[in-house]
Design brief:
It is a multi-pass membrane protein. The protein is mainly beta and about 700 residues long. It has 5 helices and 39 strands. The protein has one domain: Beta Barrel (Maltoporin, Chain A). The radius of gyration is 25 Å and the shape is globular. The two termini are about 40 Å apart.
């Protein structure tokens, strides 16, 4: 299969020739205007924050467009791992926040066009991002992120391409190894008189998976629209649907299993047919209205449903067990109101947000892959109500002071309906309150050169999934879990250098109290506890350069020292040990060459240092470095534009562990990454008449 794909790519691309080729889009501007953090279109150089923008080219060009990790690896301070397990989603962490997640995303806020993809308790899934319709991704790290509320160790926000003037329709096909393929169709059109745009895409992705027992199918439907209403208002509408039926879960491997056969499924994965079915539908709308005297009012609403059925690697048949099959039926929604006002050198932003998630959680015995008797039945509710105020003051030209406060109330309620003589009523409730805040000063002492200092304090509650099970294996919820609270100091430099170069350097120090950590992970089910104190100190550096119309490059480097400062549980003292799941060093480099207007060649390198897999630091995944290569070509055929690419990932066929499952039971820590893999892709597009 590998040789066939490479041969097809080599033969097919030159066959289109050079004639009639369009100009390759130029590299994105190095200085971007950002929204995330400021909640207002602001030059990146003017914000006292570490914030990076990933342009559309890095998201869609020569990419599969299934895993957002392919685009996020170029952001310093962020780790995005493809687990090769679509039943558990990607691992995404920012400065160590979120590294504990055994599935989905924790500790990092996810949004698309201002609509939350993170529930009130802090759970998020990156698979919901519409990568086909992306214009850019903004990643915010550090103190300014705390103004997004609960679980804002960082913010990842995708912005859709909703600018009018590019009506078209088309589609594409991607083919890879392990029976992998993806197809998509998309269309967009301007509204009458240029008063907006409407766009839609559908896609299907299938793979047999790199490992045994990892078959996946994912279907997606996305609708986006933006319309001008009257003279002063704009409406944005988003609709997303994802269907992922019977996605197999290969689980983690022990070190011995990894050496013996890295492509095998973990212990009991086949015996209990571990798998997950997900169906998610969501819609959101936002109306922005310009008022008099430089004021703007924005109202947003969203809602949706999510159903999940997951088969774990154990029966869960005990009379006080919660079952080995998890069945969730969730409804969620929320609304936000924001007011902005400009007055002289001041920008004021005030807002109210309310979000609610309600789920029916049931547990059944896993009878070797078949749902058996009921072992859990309860209704869980999470809701938050937040009030926020943010101000930006231009003290004098080039000097900007930014500050803000956000008061949050988060509530969990559990109503137990499974009550027997051996399993008492486990109903309960938990309330959290916190006021987050930040203050930062940014100084731009010459055009394109800026430095900042900032400090912020935020918090992170456990999620409903994290309070669902007690670490002592007794029935009932783990309502003793506390919220983690963190304080971060940060200083940074940003520079727009000569000849199309830009660079940034950030240093930070974060102290966390009551860090939420994994106590144990058994067959895909994790339980959690609070550590005493942890610390994170690090340096992030990035450099982008446009050397000429033919050459551009980018580099991102992170050093992060993350440790338990004070953590004792039972007879074990982990104080001084490194946080599991957090690499100390990560690096990324990319070089693109455009030898002719229609051709592009890109080389990427990613390096990751050793990652500890447990709190005791007795097991780890060794560091690695991998190289990816891609070749792309565009060709115009009348009104049609064809774009094709071939790529080889992990060119050196390096055997490495892509991610670890923190504190996994039976030492099943390791999720191996594929060796050398080849793929090709083709897209076809036609502009509207």
């Amino acid at each position: 299969m590998r040789a066939g794909l490479l041969s097809l790519a080599v033969l097919a691309l030159p066959a289109w020739g050079q004639g009639g080729a369009p100009s390759t889009p130029s590299a994105p501007a190095l200085e971007a205007v950002v929204i995330t953090g400021s909640r207002d279109a602001t030059p990146r150089q003017a914000l006292p924050a570490a914030i990076d923008t990933v342009p559309a080219e890095a998201i869609v060009q020569d990419q599969l467009r299934v895993n957002i990790s392919d685009a996020l690896v170029r952001v310093p301070g962020l780790v995005a791992n493809n687990r090769q397990n679509y039943a558990q989603d990607l691992q995404v962490s920012i400065r160590g926040f979120g590294a504990r997640a055994s599935f989905g995303v924790r500790g990092v806020r996810l949004l698309q066009d201002g609509i939350p993809l993170t529930t009130p308790d802090g759970q998020g899934q990156t698979g919901l991002f519409d990568l086909d319709g992306a214009q850019r991704i903004e990643v915010l790290r550090g103190p300014l992120a705390v103004l997004y509320g609960n679980s804002s160790g960082g913010v990842v926000q995708l912005f859709s391409d909703l600018d009018p003037g590019d009506p078209h329709f088309g589609g594409g096909l991607w083919l890879g190894e392990d029976g992998s393929w993806r197809s998509h169709l998309q269309a967009r059109s301007d509204l009458a008189e240029g008063r907006g745009v409407v766009a839609a895409n559908v896609a299907r992705f299938e793979t047999q998976g790199y490992r045994e027992h990892s078959d996946t199918r994912r279907d997606g439907l996305n609708l986006r629209a933006r319309a001008v209403l009257g003279e002063r208002s704009t409406l944005t509408l988003l609709v997303n649907h994802q269907n992922q039926p019977q996605t197999q879960d290969p689980l983690g491997l022990t070190e011995a299993q990894l050496r013996d056969n890295r492509r095998q499924a973990g212990t009991n994965a086949v015996a209990f047919d571990t798998r997950k079915t997900v169906r998610h539908s969501q819609a959101g709308a936002a109306v922005s209205t310009d008022l008099d005297d430089g004021q703007t009012l924005r109202l947003s609403v969203y809602g949706g449903t999510r159903t999940v059925r997951q088969y774990l690697a154990f029966p869960g048949s005990g009379v006080t067990a919660s079952g080995g099959v998890v069945d969730l039926d969730r409804t969620f929604g929320g609304a936000g109101l924001e007011w902005q006002a400009r007055a002289g050198d001041w920008l004021w932003i005030a807002g109210l947000d309310h979000d609610r998630s309600q789920e029916r959680r049931q547990g059944f015995v896993n009878d070797n892959g078949t749902a058996g008797d009921l072992r859990r039945d309860e209704d869980n509710t999470a809701r938050n109500t937040d009030a926020r105020l943010q101000a930006r003051w231009t003290l004098q030209p080039g000097w900007t002071l930014v500050g803000g406060l956000r008061h949050s109330r988060v509530a969990f309620d559990i109503d137990d309906a499974y009550i027997t003589a051996d399993n008492p009523d486990d109903s309960g409730a938990r309330r959290f309150r916190s006021t987050s805040g930040m203050l930062g000063l940014n100084v731009e002492w010459r055009p394109g050169w800026a430095g900042h200092v900032s400090v912020g304090r935020g918090f992170e509650t456990p999620t409903l999934a994290e309070v669902a099970y007690r670490p002592d294996a007794q029935p009932g919820a783990n309502l003793a879990l506390d919220a983690a609270r963190h304080t971060t100091w940060e200083a940074g430099l940003k520079a727009a250098l000569a000849a199309g170069h830009s660079a940034s350097l950030t240093v930070f120090d974060t102290l966390v109290r009551d860090e939420i950590v994994i106590f144990n992970n058994v067959g895909g089910r994790s339980t959690f506890t609070n550590a005493g104190r942890t610390s994170r100190r690090g340096i992030e550096a990035a450099w982008q350069a446009r050397w000429s119309p033919q050459w551009d490059s980018s580099v991102a480097i992170t050093w992060l020292r993350a440790r338990f400062e004070d953590f004792t549980t039972g007879t074990s003292d982990y104080s001084g040990q490194r946080l599991p799941g957090v690499p100390e060093r990560t690096a990324f480099a990319a070089l693109t060459w455009r030898p002719a207007p229609a051709w592009r060649m890109t080389a990427q390198w990613r390096g990751v240092s050793r990652v500890w897999a447990n709190d005791a630091n007795t097991a780890s995944a060794p560091g690695y470095g991998v190289v990816n290569l891609s070749l792309g070509h565009e060709k115009r055929l009348g009104p049609w534009r064809l774009d094709a690419f071939a790529r080889v990932d992990n060119v050196g066929d390096t055997h490495h562990v892509g991610s670890v499952i923190v504190n996994a039971n039976n030492a099943q820590f390791y999720e191996p990454a594929p060796g050398r893999r080849a793929s090709i892709g083709l897209s076809l597009r036609r502009d509207w008449p």
